[in-house]
């Protein structure tokens, strides 16, 4: 669905009318449903990528929050018996655990982005370097719409959770809406 097409304008009007017709408590679920419908209309395969990114980000952020809770509980329970150096060492150990989860999420989601967007670019450059050796075949691969934007959106969220600058969202549907909200993904390249 092209953003300049009549189909998109009709879709957008349907979203706007529906949003203002439904009760306030159903507005965000409605936007989530329409965002997934938008991706489905564009290409049903896109849903696999955006759902994978959403689920991985959600679970990693919950895991990092659990580590924060474990650390805070331990420090509160052992406050009297731990020296300043012991507290510092324990916090560093827990931060390292969170760092490992953050790296896992970063590598996973940037990996998806890199493979989908840059595989053929790398193959083309390799073919240019070894022109006489017989070219490698380009891969017929889906490049999901808005993958760069929503990948960096998820990374900003998970990094904020790691730094404890943002609140962890325990509702996966809220995380899903944050990642998939279609009007922000169609705003164009940065």
Task: Name its key features.
190 residues; mainly alpha
Account of the 3D structure:
The chain is an all-alpha fold and 190 residues long. It has helices spanning 6-21, 27-42, 46-77, 84-129, 147-163, 172-180, 182-185. The longest helix is centred in the middle third of the chain and has 46 residues, at 84-129. It is flat. 19% of the residues are buried. The mean pLDDT is 90.
Concise account of the structure shown:
By secondary structure, the protein is an all-alpha fold. Helices cover 74% and strands 0% of the residues. Helix 1 runs antiparallel to helix 2 (27-42).
Shape: flat
Major sheet: none
H and E order: HHHHHHH
Q: Helical region count?
A: 7
Unreliable residue runs: none
Could you tell me the radius of gyration in angstroms? 22 Å
Distance separating the two termini: 21 Å
**Proportion of residues in helical segments:** over 70%
Q: Output the structural class.
A: mainly alpha
Q: What is the typical, i.e. mean, pLDDT?
A: 90
User: What's the total count of β strands?
Assistant: 0
Q: What portion of residues belong to β-strands?
A: under 5%
